[in-house]
Amino acid sequence: MYCAKCCNDLTLPILALLFPTTYLDKNGLDFYRAHGLDTLMAKNEDVKFEYLGKVFTISILGLILPEVYLDEAGQTFYREQELADLLKKNGHVRVLHKCQHLAADNLCDIYELRPQLCRSYDCSTRDECTSHPLEFRR
Fold this sequence. Notes:
It is built from nine helices and four strands; from the N terminus they run βααααββααααβα. By secondary structure, it is an alpha+beta fold. It has one domain. The two termini are about 15 Å apart.
């Protein structure tokens, strides 16, 4: 079994998640699309992310414009969790979203065509991956 932890989440500045064409280069956009985050944005689906040790699930547009897209309880939660500060500071979040090309056996369905960012990613920089032997499918 392969680790594939990097295919199940990604860390990026919150504004890169919300406005990828402004904040990401071509490689970043390829990775963003491979994870299917463009689909989340287009459909205004919920995004699950970790920030400062807490896990949040919120609609994309609710994160950007809470007073328009969140109900009263959602707006209260938004204020209590100080999510506006996350946007102001462009804080880094860990998006908990599986790459759409990751198969059940943890192998990449588009291995030969995977984005450059995936090709050059050094998984030894992730603490939880260093205990796994590195195995790659060719």
